[in-house]
Amino acid sequence: MMSTVATNSLIILLFSVSRGAAQAPSFPSAVDRFIRAELSRQQIPGMSVAVLRGDSVLLARGYGLANLEHRVPATDSTVYAVGSVSKQFAAAAIVMLAHQGRLSLDDPIVRYLPEGSGIWPGVTIRHLLTHTSGIPQDTVPDWRRDYTESELVRSAAAQPLEFTPGDRQSYSSTGYALLGIIIHRVTGKFYGDFLRDHLFRPLAMRTARVNSDVDIVPNRAAGYYMVNDTLKNQDWVSPSINSSADCCLSFTVRDLAQWAIGLNHGKVLSRAGLEMSWTPVRLNDGGTYPYGFGWNLTQQRGYRRIGHSGAWLGFQATIQRYPDFDITVIVLANLAQAKPESIAMGIAGLLEPVLIPPHLLPTRLPGETPPTSIDKLLGAIASGRDSAEVTPEFRASFPGPRRELIAGMLKAIQTWTMLGCEGVRGRGISRLRSRIEHICYAKGTAGEGSLLFTVLYGSGWRAAGLDNVFGI
Predict the structure, then answer these.
(1) Residue 139: its pLDDT value, please?
(2) pLDDT at 7
(3) Rounded CA separation 75/73 (Å)
(4) What is the pLDDT of residue 384?
(5) What SS3 state is found at 41?
(6) What is the band of 20 on the pLDDT scale with cuts at 50, 70, 90?
(7) Model confidence over 374-419: pLDDT tens digits?
(8) What are 22-33's pLDDT values in tens digits?
(9) What is the DSSP letter of 335?
(10) Are strands 315-322 and 80-81 parallel, antiparallel or unpaired?
(11) E strand segments, 301-400
(12) What's the whole-model pTM score?
C-alpha cells in the first residue's frame, strides 16, 4: 500500500498539474506518475489506459504486466475482458434494430421470449435496457453449467418480478442477457456476430470480440484476484455464461478509443439513437433515474459524466465521457479488486481542474453543509428512518435489498472524512423529479480501502440522490 507521504504527494501533483493541463506538454508524464502510483497503491498487476480529447488520442499506453506467469508487459494492444461495459454494445444493437424497424423498444419481451409469457406480461424491451423491468439481477443457478438460450430464458422466467415494471430502477444483468437472446431471435445471428458485423468492423475495432476460453487471442491479459495479499488466477465459468450479452466482451483500449470516436460523430448509432441512449429513464411516477441504455448518466463535481464500469473474472474496466469538456477516459485492469472508475476520475481532473475528485483535493470543499452529516443520513436510510431527510421519490428508490446493502457498507466503515459540499443551483441537474442545489461528499474508510459517497440535495436540504458508491 502507498504511504501517507506518497498519497499526499500524489494529491499535490494532481492539483498542481491540472491548472491549464489541457495544453501542457507535461500531461502524459503527469498521468504516467498518477497511474503508476495507483498501480502500486492498489496492487494491480497490469493496466491499459486511453485518454481522448475529442477525436485526438492524448494517451494510449499499458502499465505493469498483462500476464504475471510469463512476465508479459501490458500495452495499448492488450486485450481485457470488460464485464458490464459490454452492456452499451448490446443496447446499441437493440437501438439499431429499432431504427431498422425490426423491433420496437416498447415491444413486450414475450413477443420474442415466449418462455416468459406467464411471468413477464408487462415487461418491454425498454425496461430491459434501463434496468426497470423488475427481473432479478442474477437468475442462473450454476455458472459452471452450460445452458442453451432457451434454458437461460426459462431460468429467468422461473423467478417472479421484484416490482411492477417501470416503478423503479434496479440493476439486472439478467435483463441484458435476455437482450442478447432477443438480438439472436430477431436477426438469426448470435449477438456477438451481429456486433462484429454492424459495430466492430465498421468502427475498425479490430480486436473486439466475445469472450472465449478456447480461442487463441493474441495479446490477451490474464485476470487475477487478491486473496490475503496473494494474487490468484481468475475463476472459470461455462462458455454459455462467459459469452452472454450482459458481461462478456473483450477489448483493447485502442478498440474503445475507436468506439468513442465513432460516438463523437454518430457513426453506427445515429444522433437520435445516442440521444435516446443518453436520456435518463422516466419512471412510472414521472421521475427520472440517471441511467439510459447501457450508460450511467451521473456527474462529477456537478458536470456531466456519461459512462459505465464493469467487473468480470479477474478484470475491472471503465469508460467515462465528459461531454462538457469533450474528454473520454478508458481504464482496463486485470485485478478483480481494482478501482478503474476512481482512476479515470483522477485522470479527468488532470485535464480539467474543475473535475478533480473531492477526495483528491488538498482542502475540503467550502460550500454550505447539510443539517445532517452524510454518515448519519446513510444510517437513517439503511434503517428506514429517513422520511424527513429525503424526498419521497428517493425514499421509494431504496427498497429493502438496497437498504441492506448500505447497512453492510456502514458496518465495515471505521472512520469518516467529510469532504465538503458545493452549490450547483442553476446547472440543470435533476434527480427523481427534484432540481439539485447542492452536492456533498464523504469518504468512508474500512480496513481494505475507502468508499466515496456522493449525495445530491434538492431544496430544503432534502436528499434526492446518491450517486454510485465506488472504491477510491
Answers:
(1) 86
(2) 44
(3) 6
(4) 87
(5) helix
(6) very low
(7) 999 999 999 988 788 999 988 888 888 889 989 999 999 999 999 9
(8) 444 467 889 999
(9) B
(10) unpaired
(11) 303-312, 315-322, 327-333, 365-366
(12) 0.93
How many angstroms separate the first and last alpha carbons of the chain?
Answer: 13
Place of cell 485522470: 347
Q: How many CB atoms lie within 10 A of CB 206?
A: 13
Please, what's the b/e burial string for 406-416 (b: 16 or more CB within 10 A of its CB; e: otherwise)? beebbeebeeb
132, with CB counted inside 10 A (0-12, 13-18, 19+), is buried
Cell of 350: 488532470
The three state secondary structure string of 211-260 is CCCCCCCCCECCCEEEECCEEEECCCCCCCHHHCCCCCEEECHHHHHHHH
Rounded Cα gap, residues 326 and 335, in angstroms: 29
- 269 neighbors 95 (Cβ within 8 angstroms): yes
Q: DSSP letters of 106-155?
A: TSBGGGT-GGGTTT-TT-BHHHHHHT-S---S---S-TTS---HHHHHHH
Q: Which amino acid is at 210?
A: V
How many CB atoms neighbour CB 359 within 10 A? 18
Q: How confident is the model at residue 141 (pLDDT cuts 50, 70, 90)?
A: confident
Question: Strand runs (DSSP E) across 20-91, as ranges?
Answer: 46-53, 56-67, 72-73, 80-81
The pLDDT score that the predictor gives to residue 18 is 41
- Which position has the grid cell 418480478? 161
- Chain centroid, CA 182 distance in Å: 23
Which residues, 6+ apart, have CB-to-CB distance to 277 below 8 Å? 88, 91, 92, 95, 269, 292, 293, 294, 295
Per cent of the chain over pLDDT 90 is: 83
Q: Report d(CA 375, CA 433) in Å as an integer.
A: 24
> Residue 16 is placed in which grid cell?
498542481
Sequence-distant (≥ 6) Cβ neighbours of residue 355 within 8 angstroms: 300, 301, 303, 322, 325, 345, 348, 349
Instruction: Report pLDDT digits (tens) over 439-459.
Output: 999 999 997 789 999 999 999
Q: Is residue 186 within 8 Å of residue 218, measured between CB atoms? A: no
